[in-house]
Amino acid sequence: MCKMWLTLLLAIFASGTSMAWAAASAEELQKQSEFKKTYKALDKEEDLKALVVLDGATDRGTWQLLGTVIQTSTFKDVKVEAFKLLSAMPTRDQNLATMLVQIFQSTKINDFETRVAYAEQMRNSEFKYLVVEALVEHGTRLRYPELVTGYRRDNNAGGGNGIVNGDPNQGIRKQRAEFEQYVEAFNKVIKSDVAAKDKDSNLAFKKWWNESRVRILNADKAILEKYRQEDLASANKNNPLVPKGKKDDAKEEKPEDKKDEKKDEKKG
Q: CA-CA distances (angstroms) from residue 239 to 50, 230, 236, 243?
């Protein structure tokens, strides 16, 4: 799984995007260099201090550093803090969202706490479609079982209608609590009507997604188009070979037009 994730990470860095990313600034390179010196992956508190250096970073080289921490650290708090910093980094396409989703999906099945912590932090992603789709898919796999009633405890093997080894509701309550926690995290990422109500509550994820996916997809497309237009305008502005647009020409001609209008009025 880790090898698969690293392959995707390399593909993201090699892929072209709609935006020409600027080279890392001297300040950014300094942050990365300082982090490499202080991060040792040996002590939780020291590693958390090292991550502070990367707070506010913007370069894609920092994506790679944080991604490596998430995949290799043995400390849950360090992994979650690195994921938090990564999810909050600026981006102008869906590559970062793709990276967040892959990390979320590669989390160990039995590591619920880390997975739900990642889910909650994905609210920082400007592009929602891919992250919400992944959260919905996982939510449908969870269960919100009903509590068992009318049982009696019987610790003897083959105890008939008894429940061997204690209260079955102990495990059920844990499942229900995890489902409620996951729903809470999901609704922090995007507002929905998904709630923990009954044993079919997990199906509400899919129902809501079918009703909302087009709206969320269009919102992402609008963001992409906004950045595309900004990049195009910036490229044209700095390119001496691109003629000025009609809008700029109109602004330049406006004072002359006014003078001509005044001459015509005097002649009249």
A: 41, 14, 5, 9
Give the C-alpha separation, 124 to 217, whole Å. 17
90, 99 Cβ separation under 8 angstroms: no
Q: How many CA atoms lie within 13 A of 190 on its CB side?
A: 23
CA distance 130 to 136: 10
Q: Which two tokens stand for residue 149?
A: 């009633």
Structure confidence by residue, pLDDT tens digits, 130-171: 999 999 999 999 999 999 986 665 555 444 444 545 788 999
SS3 42: coil
Q: How far apart are CA 24 and CA 164, in angstroms?
A: 62
The pTM for the full model equals 0.78
- d(CA 221, CA 37) in angstroms, rounded, equals 40
Token pair of 241 as six digits:
């070979």
Q: pLDDT (tens digit, 9 = 90+) per residue, 84-129? A: 999 999 999 999 999 999 999 999 999 999 999 999 999 999 999 9
Q: Tell me how far apart the alpha carbons of residues 149 and 164 are, in angstroms, rounded to a whole number.
A: 15
Q: To 10 degrees, the CA torsion angle through 188, 190, 196, 201?
A: -150
Cβ partners under 8 Å of residue 236, min gap 6: 242, 245
Q: How far apart are CA 171 and CA 177, in angstroms?
A: 10
Q: What is the pLDDT of residues 200-213, one digit of tens each?
A: 999 999 999 999 99
